[in-house]
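Lab meeting, item 3. Inverse folding demo.
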């Protein structure tokens, strides 16, 4: 057939019909891929259709599809297309987003819709609506093409679905990990002779210690992906409001060896601490699996709206596209922006996308959205991961493979990576670590790692907005690589640097502790003026205390120190530091050898209505 040009996203697509593939919706309980007229199933769900190749008996695809449509079990059959320059199959869902010119009346709109036998699904404004083709309508792509020629129509965009890239580094030369060095890197990997760079980690273990916990059990991380093994021992106790976009059900599709990506992604973010196996960055967080990635406008709206409506705090997406044919249009952009603004009761869902593994000088189009935290990858040597896409939109990088990979959960139906020998391998060094895990990497791994760290940040300060979480991640990152690669604090490779969970949590806690000066003080201590008696001695950088405030004005320090010492009968320690070019004073009550003693005092301070937390004095010296 001749090429059709249609509007899509911010540009146009030139489409050509596939000569071998079609999309089918069937009423039979038997999958379409098992029917005698089907050669093979290519994709389980694109735009609500199963994409299959039909058995070749020298018929052209139009005749063959017409023949298949006559089958009793086939409800709908549609052509599959390719965009010029792309090898990804493209399916029209049947929905068409139509914007009429200003001043076109509803009656005139109805005449246009009736001409092509379209039904209205949703009216969004006087000029904007979503329509759907009916059995009497032409192909939705043809309809959109014809609508675009009508003077009354400003824009007619068919809703299209295509396969999105999963950003896991899959080549057999991937460096694979033996232990979870990304949480704390000591410079070596147990049971191997491989040397890595000490400190080239995300400082997650330090953040746990600063929090005094593994994060909040009320924080919900939504992972949008395919292939979730919800029976995996590191995930099964954490499932919260799951949803499958392909079957429109809370019952997730399981067992298809083509879809395994979601399981390791989720585990890097939130694998439970249960005394065995691995642990995620936020082991206490709840897990909202949303299965079924889709390029479709309607599916994109649904996945993000589902997160808003069902209580997701964080949304982790290790997929997307860098194909110029499939840049984000206004509908997808608005869906992401809506979640970033309306989620978490108006504070905004924290949304993360992988930058992609294409070694390109631009990032995944989803990651380029201004409300998104765009996550690239660094290595166990604290270097740039060469596959990680670059660009001005990169927010941050986080440890992944490229030198030595990450250990992650494995779906029970994962068949592994087939090497040239035909042997399936799960571990870089060949040492078997059991059937529950595998080595993993790419920006697919770095993105959920940052998502888990965002859960720790929200544990430290639940009142932060999504924008503030992004600011904290960027402002507390460690600059790695050459200083010459940064301009204005930002690098196209590293973003604002390699994530530092400990510093990020500390900043979240600091912002939480910004509170009004104490209302109740002794009458002769109404300001930082007057006479104060105190002795000064150097405090060793060891042990634990209870931090009860951060102040810029030394007069406030004197007021607070007098009150705290009188109230709790403990020594007062003041840590003098720099923050944003200004001197700040952290006030700590008590000095104890053990965290348990500090926690006992913390309970008393908290009971007195003073916001506080246990502080590791070794981190403040």
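The presenter then showed the designed sequence:
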């Amino acid at each position: 057939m001749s090429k059709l040009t249609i509007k899509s996203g911010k540009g146009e697509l030139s489409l050509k019909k596939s000569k071998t593939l079609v999309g089918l919706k069937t009423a039979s309980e038997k999958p379409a891929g098992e029917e005698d007229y089907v050669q093979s199933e290519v994709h389980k769900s694109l735009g609500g259709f199963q994409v299959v190749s039909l058995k070749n008996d020298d018929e052209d695809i139009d005749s063959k599809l017409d023949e298949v449509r006559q089958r009793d079990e086939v409800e709908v059959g549609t052509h599959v297309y390719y965009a010029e320059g792309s090898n990804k199959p493209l399916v029209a869902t049947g929905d068409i987003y139509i914007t009429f010119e200003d001043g076109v009346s509803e009656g005139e709109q109805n005449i246009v819709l009736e001409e092509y036998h379209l039904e209205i699904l949703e009216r969004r404004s006087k000029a904007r609506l979503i329509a759907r083709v009916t059995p009497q309508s032409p192909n939705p792509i043809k309809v959109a093409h014809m609508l675009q020629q009508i003077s009354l129509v400003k824009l007619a965009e068919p809703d299209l679905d295509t396969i999105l890239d999963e950003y896991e580094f899959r080549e057999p030369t991937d460096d694979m990990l033996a232990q979870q060095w990304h949480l704390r890197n000591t410079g070596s990997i147990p049971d191997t002779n491989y040397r890595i760079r000490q400190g080239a980690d995300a400082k997650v273990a330090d953040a746990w210690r600063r929090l005094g916990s593994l994060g909040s059990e009320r924080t919900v991380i939504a992972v949008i992906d395919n292939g979730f093994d919800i029976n995996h021992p590191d995930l099964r106790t954490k499932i919260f409001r799951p949803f499958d976009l392909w079957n429109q059900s809370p019952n997730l599709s399981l067992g298809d060896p083509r879809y395994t990506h979601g399981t390791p992604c989720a585990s890097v973010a939130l694998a439970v601490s249960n005394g065995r196996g691995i642990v995620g960055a936020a082991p206490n967080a709840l897990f909202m699996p949303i299965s079924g990635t889709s390029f479709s406008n309607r599916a994109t709206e649904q996945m993000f709206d589902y997160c808003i409506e069902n209580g997701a705090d964080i949304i982790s997406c290790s997929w997307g596209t860098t194909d110029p044919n499939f840049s984000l249009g206004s509908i997808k952009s608005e869906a992401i922006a809506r979640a970033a603004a309306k989620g978490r009761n108006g504070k905004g869902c924290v949304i993360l996308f992988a930058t992609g593994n294409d070694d390109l000088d631009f990032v995944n189009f989803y990651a380029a959205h201004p409300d998104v935290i765009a996550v690239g990858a660094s290595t166990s040597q604290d270097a740039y991961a060469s596959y990680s896409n670059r660009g001005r939109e990169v927010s941050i990088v986080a440890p992944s493979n490229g030198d030595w990979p990450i250990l992650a959960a494995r779906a029970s139906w994962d068949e592994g990576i087939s090497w040239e020998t035909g042997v399936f391998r799960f571990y870089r060094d060949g040492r078997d670590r059991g059937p529950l895990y595998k080595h993993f990497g790419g920006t697919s791994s770095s993105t959920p790692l940052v998502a888990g760290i965002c859960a720790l940040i929200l544990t430290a300060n639940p009142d932060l907005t999504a924008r503030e979480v992004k600011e904290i991640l960027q402002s507390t990152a460690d600059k790695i690589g050459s200083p010459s690669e940064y301009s204005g604090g930002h690098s196209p490779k590293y973003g604002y640097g390699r994530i530092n969970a400990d510093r990020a949590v500390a900043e979240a806690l600091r912002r939480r502790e910004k509170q009004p000066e104490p209302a109740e003080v002794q009458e002769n201590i109404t300001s930082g003026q007057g006479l104060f008696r105190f002795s000064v001695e150097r405090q060793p950088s060891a042990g634990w205390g209870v931090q009860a405030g951060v102040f810029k004005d030394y007069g406030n320090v004197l007021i607070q120190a007098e009150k705290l010492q009188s109230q709790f009968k403990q020594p007062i320690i003041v840590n003098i530091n720099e923050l944003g070019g200004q001197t700040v004073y952290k006030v700590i009550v008590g000095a104890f050898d053990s965290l348990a003693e500090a926690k006992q005092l913390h309970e008393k301070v908290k009971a007195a209505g003073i916001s506080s937390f246990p502080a590791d004095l070794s981190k403040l010296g």
